[in-house]
Amino acid sequence: MKILSFDTLASTQNYLLEQLRDKSHPLPLAVWAKRQTAGIGSRDNRWEDGEGNLFFSFALPSSLLPEDLPLASASIYFAFLMKEILEDYSSDIWLKWPNDLYKGYQKIGGVITKKVGDVIVCGMGVNLKKNANGYDALELDIDREFLLKSYFEVLEESPSWKQVFSKYAIEFERRKSVSAHIQGEYKSLRDATLREDGSLIIDNKRVYSLR
């Protein structure tokens, strides 16, 4: 994974998408910035500021992902890998379906994933030190570049979706008392059923997590 590093960017994801359009670098490719001023979050939210936090995006051909990974559940896959790394440094870290990282009952990070042709683009933000973007922080004094490289080492090992999902499914059942934004509404997950492809059955409808 080639990593482009910057002191400040408006959005690591927008910069990465520009590189993809211009075909400026071979894939896989990652972009990270020490400070982000107009980061992209879910539902048009912004994920920005807070120097000391981790902001990065990466793109890779779908052919490099595990063969059994449902692409519509890529956010779950990418976020859960980061969750497992963060567990080495802090307790009570978990993933709320489909793309929010939590410590206890406080959001500390998030993932947004999109498909561009045959390329999967993922943007991720984790509040390590400051909560300037309105969310909580882990208050960890950890080298961000080390954390980033650790994440890509795990990603390159390409654990199967089956491996990841088997652990996530247990976590999902344990945290079903929470609510999540689903198709424009904030709904309880108490009565939701998690399917093996990462989708949910809720209110007799099937909902996928690609976002």
Describe the protein's architecture and organization.
This protein has 211 residues and is of the alpha+beta class. Helix content is 25%, strand content 32%. The chain has helices at 12-22, 74-86, 144-157, 161-174, and strands at 2-9, 29-36, 54-61, 93-96, 100-103, 106-116, 119-126, 179-182, 185-188, 193-194, 200-202, 205-207. Helix 2 crosses helix 3 (144-157). The longest helix is centred in the last third of the chain and has 14 residues, at 144-157. 36% of the residues are buried. The mean pLDDT is 89.
What labels would you give this structure?
single chain, 211 residues, alpha+beta, three-stranded antiparallel beta sheet, 4 helices, 32% strand
Q: Which ranges are low-confidence, i.e. pLDDT below 50, for 5 or more consecutive residues?
A: none
CATH arch. level architecture: 2-Layer Sandwich
Query: Which structural class is indicated by helix and strand composition?
Result: alpha+beta
Helix content: 10-25%
- Which of globular, elongated, flat, extended, rod-shaped describes the shape? globular
Strand content: 25-35%
- Number of DSSP helical runs: 4
Number of domains: 1
Give the strand line-up of the largest sheet: 1-2-3-7-6-5-4
Taking all Cα atoms into account, the compactness measure Rg is 16 Å
Largest sheet: 7 strands, mixed
String of helices and strands = EHEEHEEEEHHEEEEE
